[in-house]
Specification:
8-stranded mixed beta sheet, mainly beta, Immunoglobulin-like, rod-shaped, 4 helices, single chain
């Protein structure tokens, strides 16, 4: 066949008819040049053909059959899905050799989840028949896991040709549903067994075959192997994912021992398959929480006093513990404070005995909040604030109100409130406390410096009528009321206490405290409820405060407790003492002196307008002292040890036995060697001992007064502002003009007149 006369270019088409010979023939169609060229190309300067182009075939004659290529597979399907143990699947298909060689079907083979191997290497299936053959074959899936599995099938024709592979997904359900998301009693795994225990689970076959869930069962303790007759839960199926719910009866829980237990739950699908068992832990806890360290702040009120941290409220705190028994305990779910209500409190006999906590969330309860770990081991600290208004009904009468703190655990345990002893109490006290006291000055003995009478002890006793939490403190003040709480505090033990008043300190601003006389200290008390009591005036008559005293009893050597000794013949003698076992003894010649001196503490130096007094008892003997130049100076005052006397008292005795004394003092500008101006002699009754008192007042006017055995000596009034007491001398301060023995005893000094 030749078709000529036309050149075909790229993309061009043409039609031609060909008369083919009878029979089956196949001819190639190509260029008439019998070459397959693809145009020309320029090659080394020569226009030469390039090999290439196309060739086609035309076939004709007879019925026209193709070479055998094996049966094609179509319309694959699987019956009986999902398959599983004891549930084989039937796979159906159509095997067709039309246009594939036209042979008959003689066999098939398949693979599962494995790509086909060499022909004849799969699982052989006996299928035979003419094309197109509707064939089916059983497939055992008992060894397959749950899920989708691929089956690969191919068939062979009677020419021995294997056809292409057909693929089909097979659904297998080999396991029961999964139980998950267990919920016990709204999320709580504890129960005390007093009520049914709700249980809910999710049961799903979505990941284990996709069958519908139809049942749920459970059992308690043992193992994951179900007992003969497990209990059932209500299942809202059939559906792929269902809920199983119900309650474990209280009668069943009552038979369980306190401790840890396990619920085993299991679901079943519509194929009758039971799934994996889910263990669900829970505890049986029948032990109620305990309470310790309960406190309320303040613990007493008068209807006004409340917590300093949160005014208007009372701070409540407690430690609550859920004890571990049989290895288990439960979380605390609620802690409440309960207070006895006034109408109950006052209606009972005896008062308050009928009070008891009510049920949870009563009108007389207050929820407490967790405040971290408690002091008690394993406890939790709970805190809250009770309003002051809750005790308003008690204020008029007062009361000792019971307070309870009660915890509830997740198992529902709560202590029995019948006859429950209170944890603490709140005192409502509107009665004011009272205070009384005494003021007692210390006593002194000889050989004391700043002696005990420079202090006074204020002893206070308090009382507080019932109902009372006791007296918290007492205070005192002198003079104007500084206001509640601003006095000097007195520490109390069992309602009583003492305070020491330093009379020297008080005398620094009020000299009357040094001079003795009647003095008043005011006291009052505060009870724990915040009630201040009335003021009580404590009055006492005090003695002048002693600066220095000596009886020459001890020490018996050296200066005998004095600052120093001047002159000769000075001893602490036991011979015929004036008092005690010793006296100062001075033995002089006509021209010698002998005395002791004491440096006066600075605090004793009288301020202007105040007095320094010295007292001594002398026994001058019977020696006659000359009238001229005078008697012997037995007691004197000086500004300093090195300075001369600015005040003195002198003694003399005449030949007739008359005894007289005189005083002298200096005035004007201060001098280290002041000149004494003596007044006339005052005769006193002759005796053995003479009690001498020398009072010196610094000021303008100031001066010196004296008494001997109670007899006043002539007073010297002068401007003594410039002279302060720095040294006291006693003994034979000046020469007596004759040999004499003088004894001195019972010396004392004070900053107020004796």
């Amino acid at each position: 066949m030749n078709v000529t006369g036309r050149v075909l270019v790229s993309g061009d088409t043409m039609d031609a008819s060909v008369l083919m010979p009878a029979g089956q023939h196949r001819f190639a169609i190509y260029s008439t040049w019998a070459t397959l060229n693809n145009g020309t190309t320029w090659n080394n300067g020569v226009n030469s053909p390039a090999l290439g182009g196309g060739i086609a075939f035309i076939q004709s004659g007879g019925s026209g059959t193709s070479a055998p290529t094996g049966p094609a597979i179509s319309k694959m399907a699987a019956a009986g899905q999902p398959g599983g143990i004891g549930r084989p699947l039937t796979v159906s298909m159509v095997l067709d050799t039309a246009n594939r060689g036209g042979g008959d079907i003689q066999q098939a083979e398949y693979w599962i989840d494995v790509l086909p191997g060499a022909p004849g290497s799969g699982t052989q299936v006996a299928v035979a028949g003419t094309s197109a053959l509707a064939a089916s074959m059983p497939v055992d899936v008992s060894a397959l896991s749950t899920g989708i599995h691929n089956i690969y099938v191919r068939a062979q024709d009677t020419f021995g040709a294997w056809g292409p592979t057909g693929t089909l997904g097979l659904k297998v359900d080999a396991s029961g549903p999964v139980v998950s998301s267990p919920v016990l009693a709204a999320g709580n795994i504890s129960t005390n067994g007093s009520a049914p225990l709700p249980i809910a689970v999710t049961v799903s076959d979505a990941s284990t075959g996709g069958s519908n869930v139809i049942a749920t069962r459970y059992w308690i303790d043992g193992s994951a192997t179900p007992p003969a007759s497990p209990a059932t839960l209500t299942t809202n199926g059939p559906r792929v994912t269902a809920a199983g719910s119900g309650s474990i009866p209280a009668s069943v829980l009552a038979g369980l021992a306190e401790g840890a237990h396990t619920i085993y739950a299991q679901g079943q699908d519509s194929l009758g398959l039971w799934g994996a068992v889910l263990p669900i832990a829970f505890v049986v806890d029948r032990t109620a929480p305990t309470t310790s360290n309960v406190s309320i702040t303040p613990g007493a009120t008068n209807g006004l006093t409340t917590s300093p941290a949160i005014p208007g409220s009372f701070g409540v705190s407690a430690d609550v513990t859920d004890p571990i028994v049989a290895g288990v305990n439960s979380a605390l779910t609620n802690v409440e404070m309960f207070i006895c209500q006034p109408q109950v409190y006052y209606s009972t006999t005896p008062v308050g005995t009928a009070c008891a906590p009510g049920p949870q969330h009563s009108t007389n309860s207050l929820d407490l909040l967790s405040g971290g770990p408690g002091a008690a081991p394993g406890s939790t600290h709970y805190v809250g604030n009770m309003p002051l208004a809750w005790v308003g009904g008690y204020v008029a009468k007062g009361a000792d109100i019971p307070i309870w703190v009660i915890g509830v655990d997740a198992a529902g345990n709560r202590v029995s409130t019948s006859g429950l002893v209170r944890n603490t109490h709140l005192l409502v006290d509107v009665v004011k406390p009272t205070a009384s006291g005494t003021l007692t000055q210390g006593t002194w003995t000889l050989e004391q410096n700043y002696t005990a009478d420079a202090t006074a002890t204020l002893a206070v006793t308090t009382a507080d009528a019932a109902p009372s939490g006791g007296v918290a403190r007492a205070e005192y003040f002198i003079g104007a009321d500084p206001g509640y709480g601003n006095g000097t505090s007195i520490t109390l033990v069992a309602g009583a206490g003492t305070a020491t008043l330093n009379l020297n300190t008080l005398g620094a601003t009020d000299a009357t405290w040094l001079k003795g006389g009647s003095h008043t200290v005011n006291v009052r008390a505060l009870d724990v409820a915040g009630n201040w009591g009335p003021i009580t005036a404590v009055t006492a008559t005090l003695k002048p405060v002693t600066v220095f005293a000596s009886g020459w009893e001890t020490p018996t050597t050296g200066t005998f407790g004095w600052t120093g000794t001047t002159g000769t013949g000075v001893t602490s003698s036991t011979a015929t003492p004036i008092a005690g076992s010793r006296s100062l003894q001075v033995v002089t010649t006509a021209t010698s002196t002998g005395y002791q001196y004491r440096t006066v503490p600075t605090a004793a130096t009288p301020a202007i307008g105040t007095t320094f007094s010295a007292h001594a008892t002398i026994a001058p003997g019977t020696t006659v002292t000359p009238v001229v130049p005078g008697g012997v100076r037995v007691l004197s005052l000086a500004t300093a040890t090195a300075n001369g006397d600015f005040a003195a008292i002198e003694y003399r005795r005449t030949a007739g036995g008359a005894v007289s004394f005189r005083i002298g003092s200096s005035a004007g500008a201060a001098s280290a060697t002041p000149s004494l101006n003596f007044l006339g002699w005052t005769t006193v009754t002759t005796t053995t001992n003479y009690a001498i008192v020398l009072n010196y007042t610094r000021g303008n006017p100031g001066g010196v007064t004296a008494t001997v055995n109670g007899t006043a000596i002539t007073t010297a009034t002068r401007n003594t502002s410039n002279y302060g007491v720095g040294t006291v001398r006693v003994g034979a301060i000046t020469s007596p003009g004759a040999v004499m023995t003088i004894k001195v005893d019972s010396f004392s000094s004070a900053r107020a007149p004796f």
